[in-house]
Amino acid sequence: MFLVVGLGNPGEKYENLRHNIGFKAIDYLANQLNVPLNKIGCKAVYGSVIINGEKIILAKPQTYMNLSGESVLDLSNYFKVELDKIIIIYDDIDLKAGDIRIRPKGSAGTHNGMKSIIYQLQSDSFTRVRVGVSPPPEGWDLKDYVLSKFTEEEKDQIENSIKDAADAVQLIIKDGVSAAQQVYNKKPGKKTTENIE
């Protein structure tokens, strides 16, 4: 069984902001797999589907970003999901819009949602799909930036990266993290077999 969690903030006012790219990826994946996200529990809305004989839980925590770990811990305990079968999708300001990176473990960086998850799980050994939202322009406060909307110029790149993130999750489930890294850990303009961590 896999638990796939997209990070974001609940509520209409946050819907199309940089910090909600994880929610967008889960919505895309749910639509692609025809999974209604109609269950409420473990401080999340979620749904489930079978892929290649594996049960997959798709979830969006409803705790607000800084407490995302509470929901991830509750979900993983309730469904008895092993750490290496948890996949977190979230926004990353260190990657430009349109890029994604896949890692089997690692630090939270500046991301408060990831800090909360690592704290609650007491481990960083779970898979993450980082979706680039570009670094903040000089002079921007980080909080203001991640709670801002994408520019018109970024929108096509973001749509592509949401699709890539959803496809990457399915490849991770089917063939493993390393296979997905080789396909999706792109450097600008080319593919790479980057396989760090």
Give the topology, please.
Layout lengths: L1 E5 L14 H12 L6 E3 L2 E8 L2 E8 L6 H12 L6 E7 L7 E4 L8 H10 L5 E6 L9 H5 L5 H24 L1 H8 L13
Helix pairs in contact: 1-5, 2-3, 5-6
Tell me about this structure.
Helix 1 (21-32) packs across helix 5 (152-175). The protein has 6 helices and 7 strands; from the N terminus they run βαβββαββαβααα. The radius of gyration is 15 Å and the shape is globular. Helices cover 36% and strands 21% of the residues. The protein has a single domain (2-184), classed as Peptidyl-tRNA hydrolase (Rossmann fold, 3-Layer(aba) Sandwich). It is an alpha/beta fold and 197 residues long. The model is unreliable at 189-197 (pLDDT under 50).
Q: How many separate domains make up the residues? A: 1
Q: What kind of sheet is the major sheet?
A: 7 strands, mixed
Radius of gyration: 15 Å
Count of strand segments: 7
How far apart are the first and last residues' alpha carbons, in Å? 23 Å
Tell me the CATH architecture.
Answer: 3-Layer(aba) Sandwich
Overall geometry comes to globular
Q: Give the integer mean of the pLDDT values.
A: 90
Determine the strand fraction and express it as a percent band.
15-25%
Total number of helical segments? 6
CATH class: Alpha Beta
Percent helix: 25-40%
